[in-house]
Amino acid sequence: MIIPILLVFIILSIVIAFAIGGNDETFATIYGAKTLTMKEVLILATIFAIMGAFFLGQAVSETVGKNILYIKITIPIVITILVSTAIWLIVASYFELPISTTHATIGAIIGIGLFLGGGEGVNWAVMVEMALWWVLSPIIGFVVTYCTYKIIHKYIINKLDGFQDFERIERIFAYVLLGSICLTAFARAGNDCSNAVGIVVGVGDVDINLLLFITGLSLASGIVILGRGVIKNLSKITELHPSTAFSAEIPTAIILIGTIRGIPLSGSHMLVASLVGLAKARNAPIKKGLWKIILIWLLTFPMAGVLAIILYGPVSLFF
């Protein structure tokens, strides 16, 4: 690959990874439960973003880059997809709304595939498998969180004797919550990095380990510089304590499974659905403005596709 073009790919991947990090809400529950300060959240998020991208990112990146399109992946296609994804991510992060970076990237890929190859330009078998996971993820998040909260409340919280017992149990849950979120952050970094480098991997002739390491650094930078807004916003969806926050984190184990299997998943959809399930289980109020989050979810896939189609013409003129 020509060196200047490779540099363009890397720069765009860095921008996207930075935007993904800025939209990462993984630590929202532990921050909302007041278990960690924002400074502690950002330190841990940085560590696990770099580790997750480097050690877990290859499988999902190859799925995104090599298995979705049946058309030949050219330089204009790669740049169009990267730019489209970056634009939509930056718009969402500006409004502090958690979106699915996976949907943004896949939406752009599908838009280009349909535009250039028609119905035969897309590997629909792979898309159907992804879509099934996308539909199941929020459902699993809601149901598992709802049931987990009910079980914890019935068999643990309701049997406590006094405030001291409650504090002791909440301290235990705080440590368990911390461990589960660190695991989730590790898995999500491995899954989300595919949205920054996956399509570049599809071109071939690039050092994927170098790309993954750079992506991890960029994810971490995005979290530190922009991410606190989204973390604070999502942490206010419903009132949280360590035990209730842990209930919302249980379903995110599916992200680790998906990452290992090479399936790009939406951690944002999973977590928001989990927090809604938690609020319903507790009969607690849900923060106003949830409809904005859902609306931008629905818009992400088609808007990324339309952006890719619009941008492909101008991009192809320059590359």
Structural write-up:
- This protein is mainly alpha-helical and 319 residues long.
- The protein has one domain.
- Helices cover 79% and strands 0% of the residues.
- It is built from 13 helices and no strands.
- Helix 3 (38-66) packs across helix 9 (208-235) and helix 5 crosses helix 13 (290-318).
- The radius of gyration is 20 Å and the shape is elongated.
Given helix and strand content, the structural type is: mainly alpha
User: In total, how many domains does the architecture comprise?
Assistant: 1
Q: Give Rg in angstroms.
A: 20 Å
Low-confidence stretches: none
End-to-end separation in angstroms reads 13 Å
Q: What sequence of helices (H) and strands (E) makes up the elements?
A: HHHHHHHHHHHHH
Q: What is the makeup of the main sheet?
A: none
Count of strand segments:
0
The proportion of residues in beta strands is: under 5%
Summarize the structure.
It contains 13 helices and no strands. The chain is mostly helical and 319 residues long.
Q: What are its keywords?
A:
0% strand, single chain, 319 residues, mainly alpha, 13 helices
